[in-house]
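PROTEIN ENTRY
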Amino acid sequence: MDLGRLLSLISEFGSCYHERARLRFSRIELCPIGVVRTSELNVSKIVLRRNLVKGLKGIKAYSHLMVLFWMNQVSTERRSKLMVHPRGRRDIPLQGVFATRTPNRPNPIGMTVVRLRSVWRNVLVVEGLDAFDGSQVLDIKPFARTDVGRVRLPKWWRLLQGAEPKTRS
């Protein structure tokens, strides 16, 4: 399924109700601002639409950015799974997808904090982006260490620190 069709399906979920709470979800539309081009290990280019270049004014002052992108290679089947073993590790109990960083989620939106290496016209060169070549970029925001204070992590997360994942889930 191509990205255009996928985004169309997402935006078509339209108005739906949760009977008990009477919540109404209205239709949303996303328009990618750019595309990821990966040419070397750990270094990527984010090519923005040319009409958005003015939006980059001042971005060179930051060392790090948050990049939100569409994980276009996640199948519909994988998107329907709500429980996963983190990083495919069967020795770690099943967790809900919202408690993990798995790409298997209802809306496969990825977010990575990257190091900004350079900006030239509508192209940002970044380090550490874990998006595939061709992934659609949804947004870019500056990141500062002060954005996050102390954090609490579950035991299984601490277990994974320094451990290589066996398989991805």
About this structure: Residues 3-11 form the longest helix (9 residues). DSSP finds three helices and ten strands in the chain. Confidence is low (pLDDT under 50) at residues 11-15. The longest strand covers residues 109-120.
